[in-house]
Design brief:
The chain is α/β, with parallel strands linked by helices. Helices cover about 30% and strands about 20% of the residues. The protein has one domain: FAD/NAD(P)-binding domain, CATH 3.50.50. Helix 1 runs parallel beside helix 5.
Length: about 160
C-alpha cells in the first residue's frame, strides 16, 4: 500500500471585513491556507465604533490578537447607567468588568472598526514555518499570499 499525498484545499475568503479576516485567521490556525479577496484597493478607516462582547474577545484571544486589539480598544467597566434627568444622579449601573470576567472569562471592549481590522490583519500576515500565510489581496483574478508567488507568477505587493 502506498501513501498518497493530497494537496491542501485552495480556499478563497470573499471580503476583508471583520468576518472574512477572522475566518482566514481561524483557517490558518487549523493549518489551512487561504486567500482573502477584498473589493477595496486598501483597507481604510471605514465604519464606526464596534462593541466586542466577551465571547468575541475570547475568539480574538484564540487568534492571539487580543493584545494587539487592546492597545487601541477601551475596556468597558460600566455597561450602562440610569440617571435622574433633573440632576444626573446615577440611579443604577451595571458593573461589566467584574460580571463579564466572572460569567464569561473575558471583558467587553469598544473600539473603532478599523482598530479591530488592524488586529485581525496582524494575525493572518504573520509568517509561519510552512509559509502558508494569508494576505488580503485586491479583488482581482490574482491570488496573493504573503511572501509567496501568486498563481499568475506575480510577487505579492503589500497593500498601501
Amino acid at each position: 500500500m502506498t501513501a498518497s499525498t493530497t494537496a491542501p484545499p485552495r480556499i478563497a475568503v470573499l471580503g476583508g471585513g471583520v468576518g472574512g479576516l477572522a475566518t482566514a485567521g481561524f483557517l490558518r490556525r487549523a493549518g489551512l491556507p487561504s486567500t482573502v479577496y477584498e473589493q477595496a484597493p486598501r483597507l481604510t478607516e471605514v465604519g464606526a465604533g464596534v462593541l466586542v462582547a466577551p465571547n468575541a474577545a475570547r475568539q480574538l484571544r484564540r487568534l492571539k490578537v487580543l493584545d494587539v486589539f487592546r492597545e487601541r480598544a477601551v475596556r468597558l467597566d460600566t455597561g450602562w447607567e440610569f440617571r435622574r434627568w433633573q440632576d444626573g444622579t446615577v440611579l443604577s449601573s451595571e458593573d461589566l468588568s467584574a460580571a463579564c470576567e466572572r460569567l464569561y472569562g473575558e471583558h467587553t471592549y469598544t473600539a473603532h472598526r478599523a482598530d479591530l481590522l488592524t488586529a485581525l490583519i496582524y494575525h493572518p500576515c504573520r509568517t509561519t514555518a510552512s509559509g502558508t500565510v494569508t494576505n488580503v489581496s485586491a479583488w482581482t483574478t490574482r491570488a496573493r499570499r504573503c511572501g509567496s508567488t501568486s498563481p499568475t507568477g506575480d510577487r505579492p505587493r503589500p497593500m498601501s
